[in-house]
Each structure stands twice: as structure tokens, then as C-alpha cells.
Protein 1
Amino acid sequence: MIFSGKGLCDEVGGMKISLEQLKQLQVFDKQIYEMTEELKKIPSLNEALSRDIEDQKNHLKESEDRAKEVKLSLQKKELDLKEKEEKVQKYAAQLMQVKTNKEYAALQSEIANLKADNSLLEEEIIKTLDEVQLAERAVQDEREQLHRIEETVRTKKNVFDQKMDEDKKAIAERQTQKQEMARGVDPDVLKVYEKIVRAKNDIALA
């Protein structure tokens, strides 16, 4: 709430006061208040920046987990293919040792089934290789994004730190100026002024 100089005069019983001095005190108080409020915002702004980094780290971890999952899938398929190819070689060698047409036909059927499975596995492996490349690229993209965010955060935090230092210095200067100005104001009037400022959490004069 804003109070007029006339209102302040009425409250102190019509004391003769220096309205200009009180108005200057008001200017200092307003500046101190505004800069103090700005300082209060900086910690929450820094926290928000830190959350940006943590969020991106989580995105990166998700991408890394996905890449590991796809690579494990590829390794399993490659191992299955190797085992089936070894079985094909084993059964092919046994063809020369069988003594009946029935055994020969059974081995041939088994070899044919294995080769069909291997053909499907090879297609899946090629598809999974593409997935691995995409997953690795996603990881790289997320790492680069994290690097960009970290650089941005460092820059902004430096700006906030600089602003904090400047505001603290400015507040100290305004407080010193206010104290010097207050020495020229009637003590009783000053008490009333300070009381109004504290009660309204605002400035006392329009």
C-alpha cells in the first residue's frame, strides 16, 4: 500500500518533517526491496537449471539402456545362428555315415529346417544391426544434448552468480545511503516511517 506524505504528517501529529528526505528514503527502500526479491528468485532458478541437467541425464540413461538391450539381442541372435550353423555342419558330416535311406532323409530334413531357421535369423540379425546403429546414434545425440544443456546451465549460473554479487553490492550501497540520509530525519518521524514500511511491506510515500 502507498501512503502519502500528508498521511504521514497527520500520523506524527503534524510534525515538521522533510518530505523530500523521506521520499528519498522511500526510493532507497523500494530499490532494496526489489533487489532483495530478485535475489530470492535466484536459488529456485538455479534449481530449475539443475533439474534440466538431471532430466537430460535420465534421457541419456534411457538411450544407453536401450542400446545395451539391442546389442544383447544381437549377440543372442548371432550365438543362435552360430550354434545352428554348427549343427548343419555336424548333420552334413553324418550324412556320409548313415546306413539307411530313412536316416539319410531324416538328416536332410533336419538340415533343411536348420537352414530355413538360419535364413530367418540372418534377416533378423541384419534388422537388429540397423537397430543397434539407430540406438547408438540416439545415445550420441543425447550426450551432445547433455553437453549443450550443461554449457547453457554453466553460462546462466554464471550470469545469476554475477547478478547476485552485483545486487548484494547494490543493496549494501543503498543501505549505506539510506543510513546516511536517515541521520538528517527527525528520529520520531523516522520511527513512524519505518513502522509503516514494516507494516505494509511497501513504501511509505507516494
Protein 2
Amino acid sequence: MHSSYFVLKNKEGKQAEQLVKDYLTDRGYTVQDVSEEQDNYQNDIDFIVQKDGRTSKIEVKLDTRLAETQNIAFEDVFYLKDKETGQTETREGYYHYSQCDFLIFVSPANKNLYMVHFRKLKENEISLKNCFKFVKFYSYTDRCQKSMRIVPVSTLKEKGLLSVFSYQCNITARRGSYNLKMNRRLLHTVKYQCSSLFSYLDIKFS
């Protein structure tokens, strides 16, 4: 895997984070970027978000195929092969160690934000075990085999663990990098209108 590819993927991810940050800021939330702080980086947290005296931890992911697959894919396990010994060791993906309250997946294909109530999902993990499928493949970004924990968008919606919002913004490829064109005035919510993001902290799991 070429280093230029890794740099490109990193730029995409940073632009997705900026999109979500602007989206929340425009709706009156105070957004603190903690993605570069060591403790929060290890706990898979990008933002600390506050409004009306409530605080939540947010992690942002970019998924360019979500609109097509209509599946949410969580990073489950990495399989790291030692080139000298040939032995393979496993490392847990963010699904197991992330301390975020919400995972927000940015989907450029349909300009949607998929907000997963991750804390609630983990609290009800046992009852959800039959909803997941596991897919193993080689990741050029991570340079190893890894498995993903897959669950349909429709299932998470039915369980009250997912909300979908629309944004008016383009992430377009240009000259080998990604250019983010932002028009904050056009950002709008098309589903699950609510006065506060944190109302989702109290949703019921059925």
C-alpha cells in the first residue's frame, strides 16, 4: 500500500470531521476537537460536544459505500502477520475499545450523516448478537487482514439506535486529493427533526 494512498485517506477523514463539526456548530453546539489528544485518540473520540448543559463524546467515520450497501460497518478485529516469523496476532478494532457516545458516519454518495447511538448499542450488545454479520478482507489502508461487524441500517433504525440527517456539501476528488466545499446555510435536517442532539441519549431500546 502506497504512502500517498494513506495520506489521501487521512485527508478524506479530516474533511469528514470538519463537515460534522460545522454541522453541529451551525446548530448551536459547542464542539471541542480532541482528536489529537493522546487519551481521546486511544479511546476513539474526535469531539466533545456540549449544549444546554449536556455533554457527549462523538467519533466521526467516513464511509463511501454506505449509501450503496445500506449497512453500518464497525471495525472488529485486525489480523497482523509478522513477516519474519509468519505468525499472526490479533488486535481489537474500535468497536471494542471506543468510548464515544455517538458514531457519526459521513456518506458522501447520498450526502447523509448516519448517527449511531453507540453507547446504547454496546449496552444492548447481547440482544443484538444475531443482527451482526462478520466480513473478513484485506485492508489496503491498514495493510492487513481485518474483519468488520456488519449490521443493516434498517435494523438499527428499528431498534431506535440510528438517525439519519442530510447535509448540503460536496466531497469531490480533484488532483489526487479531496476538496470539501461547504455552504453552511444549506445544511439542514431532513429526518428526525429534534431541538437537541442529546434527546437521543434518552431513546428507548425495543
